[in-house]
Amino acid sequence: MPLEIVTIPCLSDNYAYLAHDKATGDTALIDIPEAGPILDELERRGWTLTHILITHHHLDHVQGIDAVRAAYPVKVIGAAADAHRLPPLDILVAEGDSVQIGGETGRVIDVPGHTVGHIAFHFPDSHVAFTADSLMALGCGRVFEGTFDQMWDSLQKLAALPPETLICSGHEYTAANARFAKTIEPDNAALISRSDRIDDARAKGRPTVPSLLSVELQTNPFLRADQPGVQKGVGMEGAPANEVFAEVRRRKDAF
Ligand code: ZN
Ligand code: FE
Questions:
Q1: Which of 95, 160, 187, 207 lies 20 to 30 Å from 109 when distance is taken between CA atoms?
Q2: Cα separation, 143 vs 58, whole angstroms
Q3: What are the angstrom distances between the C-alpha of 106 and each of 45, 75, 200?
Q4: CATH no. for residue 43?
Q5: How many A from CA of 93 to the centre of ligand 2?
Q6: Domain enclosing residue 107, as ranges
Q7: Is residue 84 part of a domain?
Q8: What distance in angstroms lies between residue 32's CA and the mean position of ligand 1's atoms?
């Protein structure tokens, strides 16, 4: 049975996720922007938290951990590379390591760029990946610590997951991302209709995440730096994809 995924809005525009294995009762929390809404959701569902998976060290992804850890006997899992600046970890992981949630085995993917120690978690049997501030809905995280090439390589790893993978990302930035994406690919019909659906969802107060990887591949300009439409959009027809990606990212930073 696939993991049951719950999206929890936190702070002004962050998301945390629960991944629950019905058979064993194991429940993982991915990122902890604040404790309140997470503890409320666990209580409402009667779930006992067993694991916390941390994607990266930024405060808006970890700062609720003390209160959550005080409430449940959890194992905290995070990047070995960033152990010195993450909350205390019980299990240190790196690229290719596995993470067990009930009967489901997840795989750790190193996705440096936003931070050098950023990791993602892919659960292939449930077709879900927790990508936080690496691959985001219609966007990608700002490149704070790594290089544009690192971020492009990280996005390529995520783009190679099965297209039916549900991408659980860390922020509600999608409407602004859509406005930017349309400046790059104004003729992308899939992007235009997705943008309309995003506006509709936001008008109703609904999250625009998670999103399907197949939809990201059709619409997300940061995944499409190898596509003629995006190359044309930045005036770099035929240029190497990593250079096109860097230009798209630079434009977004200035948008
Ligand atoms: Zn971050
Ligand atoms: Fe963030």
A1: 207
A2: 13
A3: 23, 15, 33
A4: 3.60.15.10
A5: 20
A6: 4-172+209-215
A7: yes
A8: 12
